[in-house]
């Protein structure tokens, strides 16, 4: 069976988001923005997984469309965390690089 690259990359992205969330809550004591980022960043992979068992082609497209919206939202939270000085440019670029490789 051919490996699902989107599944692998979305899981790796979610793992990075979880680690970033841990850093933000432990080191920066930031709980609100990071929680939103955690939700949207991990939802991408969950939706990709759901799409594997879509009931129809339309359902498959719908689930991946929602995953794309979650990716866009995640980028928003990352930009906000950067602009509010919770993360630096290096962290922002590293995580955005992974986000843009989907």
Structure report:
It is a single chain. The chain is mainly α. The protein has a single domain (5-96), classed as 23S rRNA-intervening sequence (de novo design (two linked rop proteins)), CATH 1.20.1440.60. It is 79% helix and 0% strand. The model has no long low-confidence stretch (mean pLDDT 95).
Sum up the structure in keywords.
single chain; 102 residues; mainly alpha; de novo design (two linked rop proteins); 0% strand
Short description:
The protein is an all-alpha fold and 102 residues long.
The assigned CATH architecture is Up-down Bundle
The rounded Rg comes to 14 Å
Largest sheet: none
**What's the number of extended β-strand segments?**
0
First-to-last CA distance: 20 Å
Helix content: over 70%
Unreliable residue stretches = none
Q: If you average the pLDDT, what whole number results? A: 95
Counting helices, strands and paired strands, the structural category is mainly alpha
Overall tally of domains: 1
Strand-and-helix sequence, N→C?
Answer: HHHH
Topology at a glance:
Blueprint: H1 5-27, H2 32-51, H3 57-83, H4 89-99
């Amino acid at each position: 069976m051919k490996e699902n690259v989107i599944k692998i990359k979305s899981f790796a992205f979610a793992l990075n988001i979880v680690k970033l969330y841990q850093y933000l809550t432990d080191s920066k004591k930031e709980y609100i923005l990071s929680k939103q980022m955690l939700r949207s960043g991990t939802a991408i992979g969950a939706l990709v997984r759901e799409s594997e068992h879509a009931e129809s082609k339309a359902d498959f497209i719908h689930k991946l469309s929602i995953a794309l919206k979650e990716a866009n939202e995640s980028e928003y939270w990352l930009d906000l965390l950067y602009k509010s000085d919770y993360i630096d440019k290096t962290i922002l670029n590293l995580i955005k690089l992974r986000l843009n490789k989907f």
